[in-house]
Amino acid sequence: MVFVAFPPDVASTPSDVKLLYQKVDDLIQKHIDSVTSPQTSGDDTSVSSISFVLLVIKTLTEAGKYIEPPILVRILQRLARDMGSSAGSHLRQGQRTDPDSAVSSRQGADLGAVISNLKSVLKLICEKVMVVPDCKRSIWIEDDFCKPGRVTSSGFISPKEIVSFLQKLSQVDKQSFSHDAHEDWDRKYLQLLYGICADSKYSLPLRQEVFQKVERQFMLGLRARDPEIRKKFFLLYHESLRKSLVQPVVVSSSLPDSSGMQQLVADVPEGSEEAPLTFDSLVLKHAQFLNEMNKLQVADLVIPLRELAHTDANVAYHLWVLVFPIVWVTLHKEEQVTLAKPMITLLSKDYHKKQQASRPNVVQALLEGLQLSHPQPRMPSELIKYIGKTYNAWHIALALLESHVMLFMNETKCSESLAELYRLLNEEDMRCGLWKKWSITAETRAGLSLVQHGYWQRAQSLFYQAMVKATQGTYNNTVPKAEMCLWEEQWLYCASQLSQWDALVDFGKSMENYEILLDSLWKLPDWAYMKDHVIPKAQVEETPKLRLIQAFFALHDRNTNGVGDAENIVGKGVDLALEQWWQLPEMSVHSRIPLLQQFQQLVEVQESARILVDIAIGNKLSSTSVGVHGNLYSDLKDILETWRLRTPNEWDNMSVWYDLLQWRNEMYNSIIDAFKDFATTNPQLNHLGFRDKAWNVNKLAHIARKQGLYDVCVTILEKMYVHSSMEVQEAFVKIREQALAYLEMKGELTSGLNLINSTNLEYFPVKHKAEIFRLRGDFFLKRKDSEDANMAYSNAISLFKNLPKGWISWGNYCDMAYRETQEEIWLEYAVSCFLQGIKFGVSNSRNHLARVLYLLSFDTPSESVGRAFDKYLDQIPHWVWLSWIPQLLLSLQRTEAPHCKLVLLKIATVFPQALYYWLLTYLLERRDVANKSEIGRLAMAQQRMHQNASGTGAGSLGLTDGNERVQSHGGGGGGALATDNPVHQGTQSGGGIGSHDGGNTHGHEPERSTTVENSVHVGNDQPSQQSSSMISESGQNAVRRNVASAASAFEAAKEKMEALRSKHSNLACELEILLTEIGSRFVTLPEERLLAVVNALLHRCYKYPTATTGEVPQSLKKELSGVCRACFSVDAVNKHVDFVRDYKQDFERDLDPESIATFPATLAELTARLKHWKNVLQSNVEDRFPTVLKLEEESRVLRDIHVVDVEVPGQYFCDQEIAPDHTVKLDRVGADIPIVRRHGSSFRRLTLIGSDGSQRHFIVQTSLTPNARSDERILQLFRVMNQM
């Protein structure tokens, strides 16, 4: 009592009491010195003195007095000496024939006192001293007086006390030990433990009890760092385990250690290097080797691996996962069943929780070993779920449960456990898919699909209907309970997404669900009911969300220590969140999203506490000083500015936005209350809370509207901001959001119009007035009131001409009017409005440009669209056309060509590199059409003279064109363009295909181009076209027009290229050098080209509707003939001798229609031969040619190239303005050129490294095929979809 009332270390303790403490310490020290001196050994008074000292020490420790560990050690040493002398005297006294009874009884009493004192010391060590961390490292019991066996015969320590003492020593926390002290402790203790368990001089029951209750419980021996000590304890385990079915798995790692791998290698006889190697000696050495290997056992492999596993936990983990399935598959079915039961029991033990935070841990290894075993043992699904979420074995448990779901289809608990794991990992799509597969009712499947797509209102109605039907007995009790619970859960989830907090509160009150009440009441808000009825009764799980709500309440309550309590609660919430974070899978990002959102809320609670503190400090300073300091409330202003910038993602669920912004709304209310008296002294501070609260409410309503929750948007705007005053800007945003919500709601058009009509426009600037008039026009248009809509749009533009949305809305109205009336004036108005809107910077200009180009393509004869287009073309920013360059180039051969030429000319002037690649490709694709325009005219005249043979002529025309193309290019390499044409180098680079060594490659390109283009042409021929015998005069005129338009388009493209070259001569020169080198050095090999052709022909066979037994179609025969001529032409024979030698004879024998004797008779046989050739060519290409080329070996020009103006391609597809001088320039080409092989085609992939260090990868396509063009179109489509 004295120690409690007057602690020794407190300054207020009276001096008399301190003197008393000093006297007690001196008395103890005096007695200890007297009893531990060597001269007092055996003295009768020493025993009583030791008993007195121990009694005093025990009393002091119970009162909280700290006792130095060396004191107990000295006493223990003295008792050990007395114990030894007393035991020896007792033994000698027992050997006398005539003992002195008085002496004997006195010695026995002394021995009993010594034993009693020993027990007291041990008890003090275990119960009082070992709980103090600083004392543990000072306590160790030497072997001489710690081995109870030495005096077992006297029975001074019972076996129960021995086990208890050893268990206490096993639980010593050694974290504060130094490395040497730790090793010394382990070595001495394990020697003591092993001596008791293995020494035969101890009784067998004692050894067994110590082994079972100490070593088996803590496994200290198996975890020892010393291999020799581990080996000894392994032998103890091996002897204690009974031989059973578990032996192949558990005892296999405990087999006797005959020799290690190093000793095994050392025992192999080594041959003399000087002895000659004869056949007999070689056979003898091999026989000796086989004999040695024959002696190896499993232990020779397992024991070294077992020792290796002690070096790293990951090694042990993977060894178990590797070995256990191998052992499992060797067992019989009965043995597997017998082994599975103890394994399941082992996995369900509670002591595994000690490793809950370890990575990896034992439970993960055991579970993964079972998961990889075949056949998998059946395990309780609840146990798998518990292990998965508790021990970070998520994906192992998921794999097990997924296999269980497929194996045991009638087991509903498996699917429920799997769905729960999906929910905990935030994998809602997987969870919904699982429930849709196993659900009974159609309402469940439809409702989950609606939930996945965000149709909360419809999904909620569907789940409510399902619950009503179940209550009325419609399903006849066929729906399982889990599915009905899912209905309720999903109804509540939809209610939270729809912000139906009143309904959730009513549900929570009726069901006494305090978790729902805690989550819903503060959002109403109803803090009073929460304080009086929920918080005193709530007993819910400790989660970060619960801590958040408690912190909210602490800050709102504003008691004397509200801020401090909130900070403490937030700290606990952070700890819980971090613990949950650690329990989640490492590579799972989606599962951590809810925790990241909770972290943001926790941070904002801390910031809210800082706001309250800052307000309190600021008010105190402002009230005590004259005037207002300039730096007052700086922390408050910084936090409010940060909150505006730190918002959730727009695609996050509405509940995430509501949780965050609703609490901010509470803080804004606190700020308004704090500064309500500053209206005259500091109006800026007075309006601070109103301004930010209005922005907060408008932002939340905007997100609700964007997510299609129009009712929620209107409710937020009407109820959340309850003040009468609001800034003009925020008032406009509120009206706009509310009007847009009414515009999308059914039956609310009148309400929206009334809202706009009742708005006082005097306070708004002109731009806002114009926007309100535009919204009025949208309402009129939706009500089918065209005249009023037109008038409203007109008024909007009249008020503010630079209103982009006003022009676009008016353009949509004119476009609709044109579709209804077909009056050209509306068409001209629509295009004019669209272009004006694009001019003034509408955000989605891409969509409206697409409509303008579409209307331009189908312009009326009076060219109303063209007139409007030309009128506003100069006012349109040039960068908006960059995404539509392919369409503009295609327009060159249509009626809108004169208008598109102007656009392309502007692009060539301002953005030359954005146009150059497209324009060059366009020229290469149409070079042959331009050169053969005269030939085409002659062919048309010839067709008019032979109309009866028009079908055959049409079929042979494409082949003739291909032959002429080969002849025109195969001779002198003049190409499609004149030699002085500056595009000539680009022609070679883009179309040239030749040998891999990069020689002259211009001559072989036409052959491959002919092959592919001809095959595409013939493949598209319809049977009706082949059998047709007449071509009408209108058809001939159309063909003539197409040829003429193609030639004129080619000339127009050439003009644009000439303009580009004249304007940017240095850039054009650098681009030509770059592309020429790429086109000549990175062409595909003939084997790769032939493989691509065979793959295309094989797919062509798959598309034919004829039966597989039918004859090969004539069109396909023509394609094969063209392939054989193109791939094995005279030019190919000269250039690729090896290729022709390896493939020509066999290929023509199998697939050339001219080889009548060997050509396949049916389509099925042709398909089989094409498959064979595809396999042969694919195998040869993959085996003979490398997968990665080196730039320094392929092209030294590209390796050493240095360009100044060339940009890295692909920077103009972002649909926003990019200044040409801000683009990334090309620095160099990557050193490695991988070969990409897919779908039978091979491409070289170049890595272009920019001036900023970025890397972009490009596929080199040297063929001008429809596939190449379709790839670009697909990429363009993907870019458009990504920006939606």
Quick summary of this structure?
The model is unreliable at 90-108, 128-155, 245-274 and 948-1036 (pLDDT under 50). This protein has 1284 residues and is mainly alpha-helical. Residues 1230-1284 form the PI3K/PI4K catalytic domain.
Can you tell me about this structure?
Belongs to the PI3/PI4-kinase family. TRA1 subfamily. This is Non-specific serine/threonine protein kinase. Keywords: Coiled coil. InterPro entries: DDR_Repair_Kinase, Kinase-like_dom_sf, PI3/4_kinase_cat_dom, PIK-rel_kinase_FAT, PIK_FAT, Tra1_ring. One of its GO terms (biological process) is DNA repair. With 1284 residues, the protein is an all-alpha fold. It has 62 helices and five strands. Strands 1, 2, 3, 4 and 5 form a five-stranded antiparallel β-sheet that branches. The longest helix is centred in the middle third of the chain and has 32 residues. The radius of gyration is 45 Å and the shape is globular. The chain starts with a helix and ends with a helix.
What secondary-structure arrangement, pairings included, does this model have?
Layout: H1 2-5, H2 15-36, H3 44-62, H4 69-95, H5 101-129, H6 133-136, H7 143-146, H8 159-170, H9 179-198, H10 204-218, H11 227-240, H12 247-250, H13 261-267, H14 279-294, H15 298-309, H16 313-330, H17 333-347, H18 362-372, H19 381-390, H20 394-407, H21 412-424, H22 428-438, H23 442-452, H24 456-472, H25 481-497, H26 501-511, H27 514-521, H28 527-534, H29 544-557, H30 562-583, H31 593-624, H32 634-645, H33 654-674, H34 683-706, H35 710-719, H36 728-744, H37 749-757, H38 766-782, H39 786-799, H40 804-821, H41 824-839, H42 845-857, H43 864-872, H44 885-890, H45 897-910, H46 912-925, H47 927-931, H48 933-945, H49 950-970, H50 984-991, H51 1005-1019, H52 1023-1027, H53 1033-1063, H54 1065-1081, H55 1086-1103, H56 1114-1127, H57 1130-1135, H58 1137-1151, H59 1163-1184, E1 1188-1190, H60 1191-1194, H61 1196-1200, E2 1226-1229, E3 1232-1238, E4 1241-1250, E5 1255-1260, H62 1266-1282
Antiparallel strand pairs: 1-3, 2-4, 3-4, 4-5
